[in-house]
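Now for a specimen:

…
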Amino acid sequence: MTSVTDLREVVDVVIGVDTHVHTHSAAAVDARTGGVLDEITVEATADGYAQLVAFADEHAVLRAWAIEGTGAHGAGMTRHLERREELVIELDRPERTKRRNGAKSDPLDAIRAAREALSRAKLGTPRSGGDRQALSVLLAARRSAVNASADAQRQLFSLVIAAPEPIRERFRGKKLPAMIRTAASIRLSSSWDVETITTVTTLRSLARRARALSEEAAEHEKAIRTIVRAWRPDLLAQPGVGPIVAATVLCAWSHPGRIHSEAAFAMLAGVAPIPANSGQVTSRHRLNRYGDRQLNRALHTIALSRIRYDESTGRYVARRTSEGKTSREIKRCLKRYIARDIYRLLQHSPIGA
């Protein structure tokens, strides 16, 4: 889809949509005046999506949809509209003004969404489905498995510390992986008291849960690697980029043209320095804590890997250190450079694709 920067030039009406689990509220707003033409609330079902399209047909042929949550509550509606080749504008979090007297309702939020789209200098399109959505699902499942496994391991470690001495003796001096193996295979004894039996049963359950979740996470990572290799193998060839990092980057980027510049990609990743100038001080910047934090974490992982293993990055770190830069400042600079290089790579299809 061609990049659109001013909706007033191409449409007559903007349909703002406030999405929820069970219902969607929409408002038709005149693109020239910002006036509200009509409002409607429908169920978040296929029939409801058809009602919204019929609602839009009543007001304009040249129209755009401004939808909050195109990848969450509005995902079904977004897919429905894209199949019809409608112009959909993504609003992850509309910049809502303060509500007058605390006023809030779904129709008001739909109106704000439409007016937000009309006021923005740059408009974003929804993330693509297909491989990107598959990676997003797998990343979420893997992250859940990894976190749950880590929780189980921490609980096991804490339980060992408080366990009866005969049980603690079996784990003494062992690292966590060895403790998990021991706990998973420990057998009960009829001579033990209730406390010991309960402790051992729980330890075994936690160990087996942690191992099963780790195996699940490994299976998800294998599936992620397969998709990334088929989609963008050139990304995996970059220093410090593994399958999880590559998948995270691809999910944020989505497809060519969605992010209009490498500066915008850096801002999305939260690695673009934010000016903090005041008076005659014109060279001050502060840390950017906004943007996609998963993408920011992926770039941070690349930076750490390159600092440790890449010779050219090591020379860069040494040079900036000699200039008086701190380790944190150097990493911030590296992440900005990495964002630029990754964006330029992504915007060009790999050879043979």
